[in-house]
Write a structure and sequence with these properties.
Chain lengths: 114, 114
């Protein structure tokens, strides 16, 4: 089975802190994604990576950055956390050979910024 | 830009009955993919069903089927013989053929009454 693992399920951070959310997948997928999930807004794409060291901005990249140094690992970074970044963050991965391929999600990371 | 709209924030169904969740989308593309994802309380998103836009036949997966109306840009999900385990958030999603980034609707919370 495909496994997408997010290292932290629940985090509480202070305003202004630097926050790292880590994601690892074990299926040798080329594509990895970070989404943010908020009630009524569904999932919104923050960043997308299609290869090591490659990234593209999604719909809401402001206040976030990403790092992909190894194929299996995709990190989301909040340089200076703010209360409006309190949310559920979902990592996902997929193969790149067809846009119709299934995208696999991790269990999510609940981040609270106080 | 593509948008996906789920007009029903919440739905409820009696166990063993049938329920239909609505989804409309907006795109100028002619070739794309549509998906329904399920997110149970455990939070891991799982793929329920997918539809390729160039296929006229509606996709079916066991108790789950879709009504794909390309001209109307409508993609509804029908769940037959509803079970308690079907209770979850359901997200409709769009993926254009040339890329690999999903655009999600706001979600519909489905409650199943015993």
């Amino acid at each position: 089975d495909v496994k997408v693992t997010q290292s932290s399920r629940y985090l509480v951070k202070r305003t202004g802190e630097k926050v790292f959310l880590e994601c690892v997948q074990d299926m040798d997928h080329e594509n990895m994604f970070w989404y943010r999930q908020d009630p009524g807004l569904g999932l919104r794409l923050i960043y997308f990576s299609y290869d090591v060291k490659m990234k593209e901005k999604g719909d809401i990249p402001e206040g976030y950055s990403v790092s992909r140094e190894k194929k299996e690992r995709f990190s989301l970074i909040l340089e200076s956390a703010s209360t409006n970044q309190t949310s559920m963050y979902l990592c996902a991965s997929s193969f790149s050979d067809s846009s119709g391929n299934t995208i696999y999600f991790g269990e999510g990371s609940w981040l609270t910024v106080v | 830009a593509q948008t996906v709209t789920q007009s029903q924030p919440e739905m409820s169904v009696q166990e063993a009955e049938t329920v239909t969740l609505s989804c409309t989308y907006d795109t100028s593309e002619s070739d794309y993919y549509l998906f329904w994802y399920k997110q149970p309380p455990s939070r891991q998103m799982i793929l329920v069903i997918r539809q390729e836009a160039y296929k006229q036949q509606n996709a079916t997966e066991n108790r789950f089927s879709v009504n794909f109306q390309k001209a109307a840009k409508s993609f509804s999900l029908k769940i037959s013989d509803s079970q308690l385990g079907d209770a979850a958030m359901y997200f409709c999603a769009y993926n254009r053929r040339a890329g690999n980034m999903l655009t999600f609707g706001g979600g519909t919370r489905l409650m199943v009454k015993p």
